[in-house]
Design goal:
This protein is mainly alpha-helical and 152 residues long. It contains 7 helices and 3 strands, in the order H-H-E-H-H-E-E-H-H-H. The protein has a domain of 79 residues: Winged helix-like DNA-binding domain superfamily/Winged helix DNA-binding domain (Arc Repressor Mutant, subunit A), CATH 1.10.10. Helix content is 62%, strand content 8%. A 3-stranded antiparallel sheet has the order 1-3-2. Strand 2 and strand 3 form a beta hairpin.
């Protein structure tokens, strides 16, 4: 006797598809704004990570630290950082004690560009039709889901 496997749920009932489609929609909404800033979405994320660095520490983060924060491989982050450096938005320097460690800091031009990128949040709020608090609460719930799945 064979047991029949039930068919998968329709895509609209699968949270993985909903999150994927939402991510794609956000990226499409951001694209014209990022194009105007001369950035790709991954470059924007790297600048945001650098923007989170405490100023007292010089604002520097290693390539590995950026990769960890973005849940990416260092080999993916390195070319992003090199392009940002070529654009004058970040500076890289090798560690004095360990030359394998590359520390990245944001330049003044990078900080200014990151400051101008606030329009992305405004665009998302406007397009979503949601209040800032509601969008923030949704973000926290999705973060909790991410953490639970990543721990498992």
């Amino acid at each position: 006797m064979t047991t029949k496997t039930p068919p998968p749920r329709p895509l609209d009932q699968q949270i993985c598809f909903t999150l994927y489609a939402t991510s794609m929609a956000i990226t499409r909404a951001y694209k014209p704004l990022l194009d105007a800033l001369g950035l790709t979405y991954p470059q924007y994320l790297v600048l945001n990570v650098l923007g989170e660095a405490p100023e007292g520490k010089g604002g520097g983060i290693t390539i590995g630290g950026i990769a960890e924060r973005l849940d990416l491989e260092s080999s993916t982050v390195t070319p992003l950082v090199k392009r940002l450096e070529a654009a004058g938005l970040v500076a890289r320097r090798r560690g004095l004690e360990d030359e394998r460690r590359v520390e990245v800091t944001m330049t003044e031009a990078g900080r200014a560009l990151l400051g101008r990128s606030g329009c992305l949040n405004d665009a998302l709020l406007e397009r979503s039709g949601m209040e800032g608090e509601d969008l923030g609460a949704l973000n926290k719930r999705i973060q909790a889901l991410h953490e639970a799945i990543a721990r498992a």
